[in-house]
Amino acid sequence: MKYVQFVNSVLKSIIQKENKLILFGQNINAASCLSGLTRGLGNVNNGPTINTQNSENTLVGVGFGLMLNNTSSIFFMKQMDFLLLGIDHLVNTYNIIRQKEPTASFTIFPINVDSGYEGPQSALNNFNDFCSIAGIDGYSFTNRNDTEQILSKYLVLPGFRILSPSQRLLQKDMLELKVLNKHSNLWYFQYEKGSAASIVCFNYSLPYGVTLHEELSRKNIHSSLFSVNSYSEFDYSDIIKDISKTKKLVLIDDSKSRNRVSDKFLNLVYKTCKLDKNIIIDRKYSEDQYFPRHDQLDIDYMAVAEQLSGKKIN
Amino acid sequence: MNNIKQISEEIIRLRLSQIQVNERYKNGEFKIPIHLALGHESLAVAVDRSMGEEDHLFLTHRNIHYNLARLGTLGAEMAEYYLKDSGIANGHLGSMNLSNPAKNIVYSSSILGNNLAVASGYALGNKANKNNGVVFLVTGDGAMEEGSFYESLVFMKSNDLNIIIIVENNSWSLGTKIDERRCEIDLSKLTNSIGIEYFSLNGNNPIDYVQQVRSHRTKSLENNTPVLIEVQLTTLGHWNMKTEEYPAGKFINYHAGPAPEVEIEKYPLISNSNEDPLFVLKQYFSERELMDISSKILKQLESELL
Fold first, then answer.
1. Do A68 and B117 touch (CB under 8 A)?
2. Which of A234, A268, B165, B306 is most deeply buried (CB count within 10 A of its CB)?
3. HEC string of chain A?
4. Which pLDDT tens digit goes with each residue over A38-74?
5. Nearest CB to A71; choose among B118, B128, B159
């Protein structure tokens, strides 16, 4: 099953259990502009499903107004950069709303435009950086397990948050990974346990981490694998414990921001762990990021294996 | 009961309450910014008296008059301005965002045009939940210039929402008049182009204001439609500032903070024209009667603030 099909199926199963949920956004039922993400949601929704105008600022405010009227809603949005038009509400309105005890849920569900080919729009692909502008709880998800758990816990939970799938992954086969451990708030998940290295993935980079883990395993290098889904409160205790044991960190971050959560994480690692090896796989700033270009990280997995083992591998 | 005596007492109470705030402001007692609404009292009383039990109010940074009208007293509002626990919002909101859900003031925004979208969402919730109330939304001529103003009007009409949009047009935004900052916006044409009925109010006649606002509320409810009322008014409290550059004095429009030349008077009239709601009351009462009403209310306020 493709990523987008799976996310759609989880959305359907949650939404159909709700009595009075308002869904709004453009083309929700047809989902022709959302790559199938919202296809058929209006058919299973027991509340109103509203096809809206192009007014992202107003639509974010509408969600907060609904919340004040004890009415839960989900705002589906084609691209996260469109949400920049709603920043006033994300900051100013939410800072008032968050002072109240929420009885209703408001979730914004924008697609992170990280395929690269949208050019300037794709330069904004760091979901955590975006959420941090207003101190908003936000969750990315990349595989079957974290998608299911994050959506089940947060999609209609009273309060406000942003949940964002990756456009780059929409048409990829859904990753199926076994979860070994997770933060109680689902801020991060652990998928593998090993003693030779700790791979920690940020933003939507888990698929790279999975490939790296597989490549390393083939070379008899057994690593732990984590993915950080939310920046929230910087409680990375399980990950820090793991790095303290392996003393070898491979950090992967596919975001283009100059203000990265992974840098703050690294700061914490440097303060608390004694490292023998420290490999950072990220994007080097380039003006290319403003042009329509592919968004893949070019990773030399063999080179990473050699760095971790400290020897040439054939 | 909406007899002229009660309405007039209420208008004078709002004026005297603001003057009490102003006196403390002049003394430098507040740390937060407060936007007085001297000259806006008739409209606030009309809105308060037009609201049904299920109606709700969304305000701007200049919200003191509506909060006073809905609350009925000054003490808790004054306490909020001092950021005390005993304030309307326990000192958490101050002035520009002051709301009072217990009195159906759901939300006040310090950002121009911000509250239109939130009010739209609230009204959509009313519709979805089959609540009967009308949303009263107060905005101004500055917010008219924001994109969110237009966006929200389109949303309200597209979704057949019961909203009364009240545009307090005082012609000023911060320190600039409309003709200094933009072209004229004909709100009647703008609203009519998207199917929203437009009405205008001016002159501060309290009986007229109550009747008109009530009538438009009924229209919105019966026809499931937003209705826009543009109210021409003057925010009083301006002064002349003498400087070396302007020895004869430069006109300073009141925007926020203390109004330095407004004083506690026996009858707290600020302007001898219809731009002052207290001047308009003179067509209903003698000066002696107005002074008696004013003295009685002032005593009540002073005892509230002890």
1. no
2. B165
3. CEHHHHHHHHHHHHHCCCCCCEEEECCCCCCCCCCCCCCCHHHHCCCCEEECCCCHHHHHHHHHHHHHCCCCEEEEECCHHHHHHHHHHHHHHHHHHCCCCCCCEEEEEECECCCCCCHHHHHCCCHHHHHHCCCCCEEECCEHHHHHHHHHHHCCCCEEEEEECECCCCCCECECCCCCEECCCCCEEEEECCCCEEEEEECCCHHHHHHHHHHHHHCCCCEEEEEECCCCCCCCHHHHHHHHHHCEEEEEECCCCCCCHHHHHHHHHHHHCCCCEEEEECCCCCHHHHCCCCCCCCCCHHHHHHHHHCCCCC
4. 999 999 999 999 999 999 999 999 999 999 999 999 9
5. B128
